[in-house]
Amino acid sequence: MAAVLRRGFRLVSFGSSQLLCGGCKHGRTSSLSICSTSSRNSSSSSSSSSSHVKVDLDGSTGIAVVKFQSSPVNSMSLDFLTELCISLEKLELDRSCRGVILTSALPKIFSAGLDITEMYGKNPEHYAEFWKSVQEIWLKVYGYSKIAIAAINGSSPAGGCLVSMACDYRIMADDPRYRIGLNEAQLGIVAPFWFKDTMVNTVGFRTTELSLQFGLMYSPSDALKIGLVDQVVPEENVLSTATETITKWLAIPDHAREISKSMMRKPMVDRLLASRESDIKNFVNFITKDSIQKSLGFYMNSLKQRKA
Ligand SMILES: CC/C=C\C/C=C\CCCC/C=C/C(=O)SCCNC(=O)CCNC(=O)[C@H](O)C(C)(C)COP(=O)(O)OP(=O)(O)OC[C@H]1O[C@@H](n2cnc3c(N)ncnc32)[C@H](O)[C@@H]1OP(=O)(O)O
């Protein structure tokens, strides 16, 4: 594992093309205790679980189900992002895995997005470390060499929507109470260029322009209309539909699919890789502003009051 963590992002030659191969470089193995339990049976299926993420790999199909299990709302804390990145990295290196399904083990929530408490009332060093882990999860999922399908079985604002969009295909539960979208503007914060570009590549320029400025959140049926999700199905069928879907993708020769994916996505990945430090600086400058901290504090309070 340490070897995996020490590796940086690299390009792997594949015929005449180069594929992206990410590395989770948080350097946090010592501070984060990932007490994972794992087991492997004779057909090389395996299960592992850490505090925020559970992974079940079916060795006979090559499909891994990665479940978010961070109560109460799967908010993406530094620890959550680190565990998720490590789990995905392990699966990427595991030859018996050909594709992953990302979903939630919690009812009604896919993910509440980035953990706002990681961006509020902390010091600049913490913000920088946190933002680096946000960059890493996007680099990992968007540049994933294997198939990634989002089985969105609950609401998925902001960072949750970003991770869904970074997958190859999205299936959402048809509950009209669920919402998905990049709502950052409603918090008084701004989605950075790589969030924006991921959305443009998913739903197009004009829809992104409106979505970002208003911080729009879409119901499943509206998300389907604009192409933010690819399929809407009854909640009880989300995982089975994701499994059927990934099986169709698995019928395509891996090398052809991987190279095609890389051809589409590599320019965007390279753009962030080339500007990681300045992107972190921008984030820290932005998030430490009094006005932004005030907005986030106000938003956190409004979430709590809504409940009361
Ligand atoms: C120029 C630009 C340069 C640089 C970049 C600069 C800017 C930074 C960009 C940052 C990008 C940010 C991305 C994000 O993801 S921000 C997070 C956005 N998320 C949300 O807005 C979701 C908020 N939550 C909700 O809407 C609801 O909680 C939700 C998910 C629908 C669930 O509803 P419900 O089941 O009713 O649960 P509660 O609301 O009661 O919540 C339970 C509990 O969880 C706390 N909580 C909810 N969401 C978060 C969160 N994202 N982070 C931390 N904590 C969260 C909530 O407060 C409750 O806490 P309590 O203590 O009261 O139990």
From TrEMBL:
Q: Which InterPro entries match?
A: ClpP/crotonase-like_dom_sf, Enoyl-CoA_hyd/isom_CS, Enoyl-CoA_hydra/iso
- Tell me where it resides: Mitochondrion matrix
GO:BP terms for this protein? fatty acid beta-oxidation
Give the metabolic or biological pathway.
Lipid metabolism; fatty acid beta-oxidation
**What does the UniProt keyword field contain?**
Acetylation, Fatty acid metabolism, Isomerase, Lipid metabolism, Mitochondrion, Transit peptide
Oligomeric and partner information:
Homotrimer.
Q: What does this protein do?
A: Key enzyme of fatty acid beta-oxidation. Able to isomerize both 3-cis (3Z) and 3-trans (3E) double bonds into the 2-trans (2E) form in a range of enoyl-CoA species, with a preference for (3Z)-enoyl-CoAs over (3E)-enoyl-CoAs. The catalytic efficiency of this enzyme is not affected by the fatty acyl chain length.
The entry's family comment says:
Belongs to the enoyl-CoA hydratase/isomerase family.
Q: Spell out the protein name for this chain.
A: Enoyl-CoA delta isomerase 1, mitochondrial
| Natural source organism | Silurus meridionalis
